[in-house]
UniProtKB/TrEMBL annotation:
Organism of origin: Bergeyella zoohelcum
Name of the protein: Exosortase E/protease, VPEID-CTERM system
One Gene Ontology molecular-function label: endopeptidase activity
Lineage top rank: taxon: Bacteria
Gene Ontology biological process terms from the UniProt entry: CAAX-box protein maturation; proteolysis
Keyword tags: Hydrolase, Membrane, Protease, Transmembrane, Transmembrane helix
Membrane-crossing segments per the record: 12-38, 50-71, 91-113, 133-157, 169-186, 192-208, 213-233, 245-265
Residues of the CAAX prenyl protease 2/Lysostaphin resistance protein A-like domain: 137-226
Pfam families noted in UniProt: Rce1-like
Length: 277
């Protein structure tokens, strides 16, 4: 049994949600102030990649620090901490086919969403424009996608929300689903909502099974790194286009990989009654 007495058992509820939302406000204010100053100098600061990186970091830090100060410390008398030790070799190896399989499954279901028509077409066009801007600067895309997003998003959605719910007595699967749906919602469009929600379910499951936040962070980074690298190398976004395989075949491969990884993780009995990280 791990000695995790140094890990505070905070809970997540409406007040916790309010603290996270309130923590985002400083980044919005700072971004607004910097934009006004830059506009007076004739600079379109919102088009600078560094501006996006800075405001993103401030946003996540603000949310985490606000939850820590107003919720975690008041509930436990301790600063927020997470179990970040490396999991066992077996569960780490099994998490890879589970993650890769989930990526293939996710792509298949995303491909079923419409991208044309008055409503969907306009929305998808805006999504495409957003992705073009995001990929226009490789270093910023890589830094945000491989480092910033995995660390801060896993801390908030798995480390704070999911962990806080299980500490409150919510069943792990309910906490996993709730945090995954919120994870999808923040991405702001149907295509990323569906993909992020599916990935979020698996990251939550892996967190539950491994009892460490480090593994979901690394797998989140792996997911983003693989997608980003393949895009810049091939210029294509979908695995079916990259590997010239039918989406149905990739779905079947994805299901097989996910079953092997997920079943294997349960088989080696890493499950606990609640997350102790």
């Amino acid at each position: 049994m791990k000695n995790l007495n140094h890990i505070p058992r905070y809970t997540f509820d409406g007040w916790g949600a309010l603290a996270l939302v309130a923590g985002f406000i400083p980044s919005i204010l700072i971004a607004g102030i910097l934009s006004v100053i830059a506009m007076e100098q004739g600079i379109k600061i919102d088009e600078l990649p560094l501006f996006t990186v800075i405001t993103t970091v401030i946003m996540w830090l603000g949310a985490i620090m606000t939850f820590d100060f107003f919720i975690c410390r008041k509930q436990t008398g301790m600063p927020i901490r997470f179990h970040l030790k490396m999991s066992g070799l077996k569960i780490t190896l099994l998490s890879l086919p589970l993650m890769i399989g989930t990526m293939l499954i996710s792509e298949f279901f995303i491909s079923l969403l419409p991208t044309t028509g008055k409503f969907w077409g306009d929305w998808y066009q805006k999504y495409e424009q957003m992705m073009e801007f995001a990929t226009s600067t490789p270093w910023a895309m890589a830094f945000l996608g491989i480092i910033i997003a995995p660390i801060f998003e896993e801390i908030v959605f798995r480390g704070i929300i999911m962990k806080g719910l299980t500490n409150k007595g919510v069943h792990p699967w309910k906490a996993i689903i709730f945090s995954a749906l919120l994870f999808g919602i923040i991405h702001g469009n149907p295509w990323q909502f569906l993909g992020a929600s599916i990935i979020g379910l698996v990251l939550g499951y892996i967190y539950w099974q491994s009892e460490t936040l480090l593994l979901p962070i690394l797998l989140h980074a792996f997911n983003n790194a693989l997608v980003i690298c393949l895009f810049y190398i091939t210029g294509k976004e979908n695995f079916s286009d990259i590997f010239q395989l039918s989406p149905i075949i990739l779905l079947f491969i994805g299901i097989m990989l996910a079953v092997i990884g997920g079943w294997g993780m349960r088989k080696i009995n890493y499950r606990r009654k609640d997350i102790t990280s």
